[in-house]
Amino acid sequence: MFLKLEISAFRHLHWNWREEPNLTRGEERALNLLKNNTDIVIKQADKGNAVVLLDKKDYLWEGMRQFTDHYTPLDKPIYPQTKVEVEAILGEMYDRKIINRKQWEYLSGPAVPRARRFYLLPKIHKERKKWSLPGKIPPGRPIVSDCNSETYNTAEFIEYHLNPISQKHPSVVHLQSANFWRVHKIELVSLGKLAPCQWSFCRQASVP
């Protein structure tokens, strides 16, 4: 009864509170000017928490450099056909009762999948003399966004179930103080049989 009275009194309170901005008007104007400036690109740096402002023409130059050197153009998008193939596989899994209807509907993803989006995260932590255009245009880490694609939900579903299993693997991964990843006791699986070999290696992590 006491709780009900308290809730009733709470509902009848008159609120005079309003949200106070944490930016000055000058700061808001500056942010809007940056946001609406079509001559620059604002991106998070590849390493660390820095924010990078690039001339749009320099950003596009780096993107085209990577397209030219590392990618082969397609005659047409392939994701519409991939959508058909994914739906066929999920339909078969549903018919065989491997997944239920709710899982089927979720894994099917959006009715009209979004094409992948390519963007770059500037690697400003690299030595300036080793930049794509030394001292002027940093190399970019290529990112292909899979959000709202035909396979995004299936990848999320698989990751959800594989992550707990990966924690039970005999491999041991830990970060050393000198920024080295060391992996020990990795057993290879081939054709359903454990290969009688173990690997031990280390990879130096990039330092911002």
Q: Categorize the overall geometry.
A: extended
Unreliable stretches, pLDDT < 50, 5 or more residues? 174-208
If strands are numbered along the chain, what order do they take across the biggest sheet? 5-6-7
How much of the sequence is in beta strands?
Answer: 15-25%
Radius of gyration: 26 Å
Question: N- to C-terminal separation?
Answer: 59 Å
User: How would you name the oligomeric state of the polypeptide chains in this document?
Assistant: single chain
Number of helices: 6
Q: Classify the secondary structure makeup into a structural class.
A: alpha+beta
For the sheet with most strands, the description reads: 3 strands, antiparallel
Helix content: 25-40%
Counted beta strands: 7
The arrangement of helices and strands along the chain is HHEEHHHEEHEEE
Tell me what the structure shows:
By secondary structure, the chain is of the alpha+beta class. The chain has a domain at 25-167. 36% of the residues lie in helices and 24% in strands. The chain contains six helices and seven strands. It has a three-stranded antiparallel beta sheet, with no helix packed on it. The chain has a two-stranded antiparallel sheet with strand order 1-2. It has a two-stranded antiparallel sheet with strand order 3-4. Strand 6 (180-190) and strand 7 (193-204) form a beta hairpin. The chain is extended. The termini are far apart. Residues 174-208 have low confidence and may be disordered.
